[in-house]
Model the fold of this input.
Amino acid sequence: MSEPDLLTYSLLFLVPLLLLAGYCFHRRQVARKQVQTAIAESRNLLRTVIDSAPTRVYWKDRNSRYLGCNMGFVKDAGVGHPRELVGKDDFQMPWAAQAESFRADDRTVMTVGQAKLSYDEQQMTPDGRMIWCRKSKVPLRNKDNEVIGLLGIYQDITEHKGAEEELRKLSIAVEQSPASVVITDLQARIQYVNPRFTEVTGYSAAEALGQNPRILQSGQTAKEIYRELWDKLTSGQAWKGELVNQRKNHEIYWEDSQIAPVKNQAGTVTHYVAVKTDISERKRLENKLKEALSRLQKIASRLPGVVYQFRMRPDGSSCFPYASEAMTENFRVNPEEVREDASKVFATFHPDDHDSVVASIQSSARDLSPWHHEFRVKFADGTVHWLLGNAIPQKEEDGSVLWHGFVTDSTEHKRAEAVFHGLFDQSIFLAGILDQQGRLIKVNNTALLLTDSPREELIGKYFPDTPWWSNAPDRGKLIDALNLVCAGRPTSFEATHNTPNGGQINVMVSVMPISLEDGIQIAVVGVDITARKQLEDQVRQLAFQDALTKLPNRRLLTDRLSQTMAAAKRTGRHAALMFLDLDNFKPLNDAMGHDVGDLLLIEVAARLKNCVREIDTVGRLGGDEFVVLLSDLKVDRIESTWQAEMVAEKIRVALAEPYLLHTQQDGREGRSVEHHCTASIGVVVFIDHEASQHDILKWADAAMYQAKEEGRNTVRFHAVDR
Done:
């Protein structure tokens, strides 16, 4: 074969091979571009996913230098693009102060080769805020399973952390609450009780859990009350009332209960919660003073003043949800006529005073300040009366303002009388939260009503320096209590607080520590015990004083006699006891009536007190029987007897003087009655070791009867004294 033919023959085979190789190369290039495009799209998709995730994502090399991150992390780092972070470490970030701790975690994860998951850590933001983050770090490995860096993710849980802290505070407040707290499921099985519940009932938490609250029932609460309670709860409403229960040891006690359904986010009732206060002591005092309070209520029912609630709605309309019957007398408007519309009352305002009354009400509503205003009303017949109004406002949920108040007719006497009737912020407590240094952090509206200072001026102040503690001794008690609380010891004490109208209230103050992660805060809770103190004073007065003459009664006289005998033993000086009985008292009562007889007894009491020294005691045993106790007489018995005789004779002469008794009818001067009266007096002189208290009383009584038998209007001594 010739050389040209060989070349031609070779080309016939070579050209197809070259074409095939070119085609294969072309296909390979197309495939490579498709793979590169797919990889690029996958990267873009991955980048989009990472950047869109709410979680912050970053990755570092073995030296904890950043290799990349998502846009969420970029924002926290305070830069504009991930590439600005490449090659930087934590010391060059806003959280440089925490960098050493972060790098230590990085080294542990990469050295050990194990992930560190879901731990909480604080981190500084570019604007200087400290946020809480929930972090996880995992090691990054190459194809040979070697650790080449780490991947980190975290979420900002600051809001969640704050919610947890608030929940913790609430839990602590419930645990340390002075009221019993009980939570049940829908089948009324107890699921939680706080420590106060166990103190009041005697049941431990273990004994109470799973039980029905009926274990506390005493059988003395009316069934209608329980029916009302469950009707309210099953209709999704709260119930408030009083229950008579029994403790584990079967002791009966009263409690004020507030029970409410607990709903989830869907509005479904899941539990019931009860907040209960032991009011047994209050009930005991109320029962003791039942008769006295009945008299006071009768007097109060005759007061011309109007007790009322006044509501101003957001649209400017107003009404009186409640007004006492005195509304008819003071405004000549029936209470039923103004239940929904107060315009008839406003129509009675004097034309010259109308605008000032309206302005004062609007000012009180705007500032939620106490309303105090004196104004005139003018009726259709031209009659004009002066009225004095006092009220306390409170904001309601719908934006209305509700006042609780009292209006009195001040036409004749024009005296200001501040009456505070209202429920403040669904709580009767004055409450404040302090930091560890005793500075005020929070305060409720009930406490603010006791000071003219706005909340803004009080927050941050050292609590003992606030206006509530203007009383120096109480301020000292508070400082001592704060010192005890800082040592972990809660305490309580009584204090007095001034009110904006110049009065005072008695408060039982409890100071308790609230333990938190970053230290402690201090809770100060005050309960108004003014009514209880007043009741105690009235009980004490009724127990030891004669109601008519205000002289010591038999109980107090017995106590004074014991003290006098003890003093005689200590000093060696004698004392004397006189029994006095008025002569011919019954005929005066029968002829002129008990009112005149009472006037005589009051005048006798006054004359007796004028005849003795301040250290001596004048008392009334009842009826027309009186007692005089002379203390600190002479050491010598004869001289002491002479002293007692001089006083007895002085009393006899004073009581024998004529009595001019002036009666009154309906507050006006009535008749005048002249009466002559004498007294029979029995006297015993004693020293502590001579006789018992019973003997001394018996001897004085016997001497008095001897004086009566021997002609009355005379003084007779016990035989031993002569």
User: Anything to note?
Assistant: Residues 296-301, 414-426 have pLDDT under 50 and may be disordered. The two ends are 185 Å apart (CA to CA). The chain is about 40% helix and 30% strand.
